[in-house]
Design a protein that fits this description.
The protein has 8 helices and no strands. With 149 residues, it is mostly helical. It has 2 domains: 3-18 and 75-142, no CATH class; 24-69. Helix 2 packs across helix 4 (57-69). The chain is elongated, with a radius of gyration of 20 Å. The structure holds iron/sulfur cluster (2 copies). Residues 8, 12, 14, 17, 19-20, 72, 75-76, 82-83 line the site of one iron/sulfur cluster.
Amino acid sequence: MDPQNESAYCGIFCPDCIRYKNKYTEHASQLKAELEKIEFDKYAEIDTPFGANFKKYEEFSEVLNELIKSKCDNPCRVGGGCSGNPCKIMECCISKRFEGCWECSELDDCDKFDILTPRCGQTPKNNVKLIQQHGIRNWVPLKGKFYIW
Ligand code: SF4
Ligand code: SF4
């Protein structure tokens, strides 16, 4: 795919994202279907020392649903945002008719990147600066480590 299509408005390179074309969603869907078929929720809610941790089953189901929802088969620019949901950065760029934040003079002071900082640190903003310096077609080999871990 064209590096421009794979580069999100915020400087994320979508193929680096854990959600992108992931395999876990399919596994999670199959597990959910199997657990529902055998009514595991009824088994889990019984108060007994045999599997006391099943008391957390409801919480586990929420995580399972989230894993299923977080599938993202298309990069941001192609699929209309993360799993099809536009974020504030994308909306801001579109409203300003920017191809990405690299066209913006307010990047350094922009607080819309705060949503990305917990997992990605400063990488998205730094990537945007790389795009400013090297262009959308040449920046990919220079990109930063996507996650903080
Ligand atoms: S659009 Fe968002 S969720 Fe999808 S791959 Fe890109 S960064 Fe990840
Ligand atoms: S203000 Fe500029 S840097 Fe911030 S999201 Fe909008 S376009 Fe991007």
